[in-house]
Amino acid sequence: MSHSDTIPLHSTSQSDIDEIENLINSNPSSVLPARPPSPPRASIPISSAPIPPPAFIPSNLPAPTNPKTAPVPSVSSAAPKPPLPPRPSGPGGNISASGFGSPPNTLTEPVWDTVKRDLSRIVSNLKLVVFPNPFREDPGKALRDWDLWGPFFFIVFLGLTLSWSASVKKSEVFAVAFALLAAGAVILTLNVLLLGGHIIFFQSLSLLGYCLFPLDIGALICMLKDNVLVKVVVVAVTLAWSSWAAYPFMSSAVNPRRKALALYPVLLMYVSVGFLIIAID
Amino acid sequence: MDLNPPAGENYAHPVVCFFHVIFKAAALAFYILSALFFDSFVIIFVVTVLLAALDFWVVKNVSGRILVGLRWWNEINEEGESVWKFECLDQESLARINKKDSWLFWWTLYLTAVLWLFLGIFSLVRFQADYLLVVGVCLTLSIANIVGFTKCRKDAKKQLQAFATETLASRFSSTVQSAFTVV
Fold it and tell me: Which positions ≥6 away from A177 have C-beta within 8 Å?
């Protein structure tokens, strides 16, 4: 739509065209605002292309009021400070950020930024779930930024470790371990939902996957050391750790009278994985 | 949708198109050909699922953004409810998207899902439960992307219509106003 093509009859029609062009060019209201870089992710910087249009800046600000900024000091892996102004991105070797001009939101960030953001999200989720942190009392908020990559890696790693330790039937062991863990996570989530609990499906899958991390470590140690006593001790310790990690999230999701009903299957699954680790030789 | 790529222009982002296709093709090829070379199911499973997961990530985060200007994700809001968010570029940039890019994007997306479905039916017929597991995982990932992007596109179209009616309405009202001022 260019001015040179139209012959204005009189001044008011020119202003119509101006009006329409303004609507097209700066239309924050008709497009879903770009993904606000900071809210639920207090600890992850969004380094997108340089200049944000004014409409997007306010969306950066909610982060400081969000209680999630509290864990920033304890989550030291990601950016050291809450990202109030979006950091300009290092150019790096990137494929994108071309052609689409102005909206400097996650739609136009360089690929490397997306990778870094996802990786740091995995690490921060892991720390939130598995290590002590101030958020365990408010679990719904703690794993707000669920992702399934971490659980995917941990399940595959556990399957691989078990398969490696097995001297026979390696393929079956892997397939069984993977299917057991994946189906187990789904069923445990359904269990909580059916008990009338308030939990989000993917958040719970994500949580149960991250809680496998201690068992991963246990399986790795058991693979390296073949002594039965060592195995039992290691598995017991990591089992307790996994259960401790999963406890607050699962128990707070359901009615207090049904806490045991929600927690028992989780414990059962982890105990069976523990036995699998001990029994494989 | 036509079967042939629109003629008369080249791909605007050939590298991204390449990556968009390569992981899908690699996962399918590896799955189909691996039976000839590898005995171990574990390797087949891990490599295929890894390639499919990488493909999912590339499509969702990179090629969706660059080839068709769409993005979808899930957030959990303050009340603890899960919200699916869809994001698209503004209308002017959407109109500028290379037709060939977007043709390739959508066609490969649908085609891979159909191929995985066929492979799943084969392994079902042969009663190979473990291969069915692999196909199931890859199919889930493909379908997730298809559903996400289709919803995103519908959302973008709705916004386009809303925007167009809004523009038409404002233009109409200002034309009427100008007509009255002339008279």
Answer: A155, A158, A159, A162, A163, A273, A276
Among residues A48, A26, A28, the alpha carbon closest in space to that of A38 is found at A48
| Average pLDDT per block of 10 residues along chain B, 183 residues long | 64 81 90 80 86 90 83 76 78 73 87 92 87 90 90 83 85 88 78
- Closest CA in chain B for residue A12: B178
- Mark which residues 47-86 of B lie under 8 Å from A by CB: 49-50, 53, 57, 61-62, 65-66, 69, 71, 73-76, 80-82, 85-86
A226 CA to centre of own chain: 35
Model pTM? 0.67
Report, as ranges of residue numbers, the positions in chain A whose pLDDT lies below 70. Answer: 1-108, 133-142
Cβ–Cβ under 8 Å, residues B27 and B117: no
Residues β-bridged to residue B87: B71
Considering only CB atoms, B91 lies closest to which of A24, A34, A198, namely A24
Condensed to tens digits (0 to 9), the pLDDT of residues A95-112 reads 433 344 333 456 667 778
Helix A149-165, helix A201-210: angle, nearest 10: 40
Complex-level ipTM beyond the 0.85 threshold: no
> Across the interface, do B57 and A118 touch by the CB < 8 Å criterion?
yes
Integer CA distances (angstroms), A188 to A88, B8, B151, B160, in order: 43, 54, 29, 42
Query: How far is residue A137's CA from residue A196's CA, in Å, rounded to a whole number?
Result: 20
Pick from A20, A163, A201: CB nearest B42: A163
Instruction: Tell me the sheet residues that pair with B76.
Output: B82
Residues in chain A: 281
